[in-house]
Amino acid sequence: MISDRLCINLGGRPLAETDDFKAKPPPGIDAIGASSEGVSLYELIREDIIEGRLAANERLVVTDLARRHGTSTNPVREALQLLRGEGFVIFSPNRGARVRPIDQDFVRDIYEIGVLIEPALTRWFVGMATGEDIAELERIQGLIEENNFADTFRHSELDTAFHTVMYQRHYNRHAAELWWKHREVLRAVSRRFNFTLARRAAIIREHRELIALIKAGEADKAAELISRHVEGSGRHVLEQMRARNAARAG
Amino acid sequence: MISDRLCINLGGRPLAETDDFKAKPPPGIDAIGASSEGVSLYELIREDIIEGRLAANERLVVTDLARRHGTSTNPVREALQLLRGEGFVIFSPNRGARVRPIDQDFVRDIYEIGVLIEPALTRWFVGMATGEDIAELERIQGLIEENNFADTFRHSELDTAFHTVMYQRHYNRHAAELWWKHREVLRAVSRRFNFTLARRAAIIREHRELIALIKAGEADKAAELISRHVEGSGRHVLEQMRARNAARAG
DNA sequence: ACGCACCAGATCGTACATTGTTTGTGGGAA
DNA sequence: TTCCCACAAACAATGTACGATCTGGTGCGT
């Protein structure tokens, strides 16, 4: 019998402290299933888009993708349709697929939705948090502070794990799934940037404050804090994007 | 040459005033584009799911669908993948697609997200509403009251049109798109039920109150009203679903 | 009654034909 | 010479057909 805890580590990476926090979706989400080839292709292409290996607006030529991944065109076509349904790819009739650009508007839209949804998820969590949940949050927070933004990739994973602890058991699977999909995009975007010192301090402070509020059972205050937390995060990332765009243009 | 106007009326219903309010998505949303055959197939199958012509958990056999729609299997396969990406269809490896059941949890989840998002959309609209917008709202509201739930289908279309006026120009396309997709599902679900007298009165009253608040520029109060409006709507539909399920079981 | 082989049916991957788009070239005019 | 347009050829998307593989059930034999 395989325990749930073990399953987390099937990602192919060596067992290490980090792997405990390898970001994974809330359970029951990816139950969409897939055609054997299709699933891997879908994941591969989506990763390429999110990680930026496929540039914005780049054409996605089925024959090329098929050759590159060693299959025929049909699995590629299905993967692209799947991505279209999730909004990562845009189709034009008789002109094929392009990578949907993840621009400032896109990111802003996603953050704004997060500001609306995450407080509700948080409020529910405050009422449902167990001792283990809080211990887990404190453990992750300890690792975040230990890492102290030295490894931005690691911070990104830890931060995602922190919030996943809060949201993963929410009864509204739709909302949790929405949050997770948005999170995946934002994680990749924010990974391209560094955190300002002010933002670093704010993150640490707000996380600590959040844990305190959860302990005290202050649901409303925790929700309000999360609202500010997400908004601040969005503001920060958008500033970075704007700065980089300005630098590129100038 | 066939005019666009004619194509709208292929649904089998006669030309009537209603067509002015045939629910249509906010502009710029369905820019996903599609493969010529694919798009119609996608729409047809999705309609069949939403309208309940394809039962929950029913198997979706590609060859059958292809025959029924007079094409080969590939367009069907792509349409199904697209629907998978949007959550209407569930795939099992080597076992094909099934219709995702639209159960109470599903509907509740969607309504809850609406309660979170729609107030924000409304708040923005109050600050941006023009005289024409308000006139349009009053016109639609007049038709709603004129119809007075005699034709539930027509009410459903008019109600959707009412809210579309408010949300269609919102800068957050992602949120508007999300609202629209949810709306399509809820429209079909609620069409299967009748409105209680209490609910009818509440809808009329809240719509009137909403218009008044918009005129007065009371953004916060309008947002709070919409929150109650959506919640009440959700509560009503869920009650109906529960009642019907209980009746079926007992 | 139980198990195993076999068969029907459906999915999934491959190959190909058709149709529409894009691109590159050449000739003619300014 | 340079610009523009027509035309053609390459290219890619879309639809069709087919074979391999998997699943589920039926019926035969024990």
Tell me what the structure shows.
- The structure is a homodimer of 250-residue chains.
- The first copy, chain A, is mainly alpha-helical and 250 residues long.
- Helices cover 68% and strands 4% of the residues of chain A.
- Chain A contains ten helices and three strands.
- Chain A has a three-stranded antiparallel sheet with strand order 1-3-2.
- In chain A, α2 packs across α4, α3 crosses α4 and α6 packs antiparallel against α7.
- Chain A is globular and about 60 Å long.
- The N terminus of chain A is likely disordered.
- Chains A and B meet through α2, α4, β2, α5 and α8 of A and α2, α4, β2, α5 and α8 of B.
- Chain A binds a DNA duplex (30 and 30 nucleotides) through α2 and α4.
Précis, in short:
By secondary structure, chain A is mainly alpha-helical.
The count of strands of chain A amounts to 3
Radius of gyration of chain A: 19 Å
The outline of chain A comes out as: globular
Q: For the largest interface in this structure, which chains are involved and how many residues does each contribute? A: A-B, 40 and 40 residues
Task: State the end-to-end distance of chain A.
Answer: 60 Å
The sequence of SSEs of chain A as H and E is: HHEHHEEHHHHHH
Structural class by sheet pairing and helices of chain A: mainly alpha
The residue ranges of chain A in which pLDDT falls below 50 over 5 or more consecutive positions are 1-21
Note the main sheet of chain A: 3 strands, antiparallel
Oligomer: homodimer
Strand content of chain A: under 5%
Q: What is the strand arrangement across the widest sheet of chain A?
A: 1-3-2
Number of helices of chain A: 10
Global mean pLDDT of chain A? 87
- The helix content of chain A is 55-70%
